[in-house]
Amino acid sequence: MSFGPPPAGFGAAQSPSWTPPTSDEQALFEAKVRGDWGAYFDALARTRLFFEVRRERTDFAPGSVHPVFRSNPQTSDRWWEVFTPGMLPTPEPDRVFGSQRLRWFTEVWVPEDPPLIVVNPGSPCEAFLPAALPHTAAWAQYAKRVGEPKESGRLRALRVGGPLHGPVAHGLACGALLCVSNGSLWNAMAWHGNGYARERARLRDWWGITTREEWQHYQQQLLECEGSSPVWEFVLNVRHGIARDFGGHVDPGYWRQAAARILRERAGGVTVLSPEGVTKTEPQPEAVVEARVEGVQRLIGRITRYEARFRADGLLDENRYVSSVAAWDLGRASKMARWGLGARFCTIQEAESAVTKAGQKAALEHRSWQDFSAGYILGRCLHFDDEEFGDWYEDMLAAHRILTSEPGSPWLNIPFR
User: Fold this and answer.
1) Terminal Cα distance for the chain, rounded
2) Would 384 be classed as within a structural domain?
3) Tens digit of pLDDT for each residue in 267-300?
4) Burial of 221 (0-12, 13-18, 19+ CB in 10 A)
5) What is the pLDDT of residues 10-23, one digit of tens each?
């Protein structure tokens, strides 16, 4: 399909030495250099397009879109600025963005809207696109041809504008499994996610977080590895202690017996040293204790079966086991910091501090990226999968394989310790 001559501003590149932040901007830049209008629109159709929205109106009506338009008071020109993911500005408290696909713009434009959309204003891949009919009808054809882009299962990174080495990058890499699974930029500290309203919805729907105070509570809980069942860590610690003391393979039957013995000993009353002094807990009813023993032994069976699958799929080396599921909390802590920033429950400085702490704690709790990955995936499976080995597992297995094989992976370029 022909669009005729390109609009003003679409032509030769302004900076041949420019480094595009991501592959999205690379595709736009190369299309602009060639003057290839079709390729430019194909690239737009394959990525998310972000635009500023009015925060107060979005908070009041999150299901509606309230864009901010630009204008020149001297000339009465009006335009709509849109950004690709790598060109978004650093998050500010009151400046927030929504995101949509190219098709959406073709469906919502009305004559009262600005007649011009500016893509990545001021950059070498900038373009000025007339938004009125019949132009939007032609855009729709490109959107239809590209279809719904597959975002998930890709390793994506900022080439510039995001850390690639150092403590912050290490902390960001702790959330890389989920970033790869979702197809988001693993090293984007200045996080916008899928837009302000969607980031708020994510925290509300998955975590029940609607305020800064609630976000702070969950962020701290995850950093302290208190976001999952303490029973998981208890049974893993029992096995780890046996392996440390005796070495070699730990028989699952002996592991079950050891865990049961510890639970029964504790049930008889435990002496505790606290700030209030020395106290002794009351003995627990036998029925309660035996129910806990039965539950722990079932859990050991689940873990044993998951680990057997992990070894078969290459997540664990032969004769290795998961030493801790701390990674499940710390990987989510790395992401929670960014989700909080995207939802404007924290500042970028607070998010960066939390990400760095997650990386530091991970290096204390785990031995390597492989060990971290196995702990994270086991925690996720115990929480969600129920031994179905469905998407909750398969998505992480695919992300693990990407992170342990692709040359640009942070796990291959950032030392774990």
Assistant:
1) 54
2) yes
3) 776 555 556 665 566 677 888 888 999 999 999 9
4) middle
5) 444 455 589 999 99
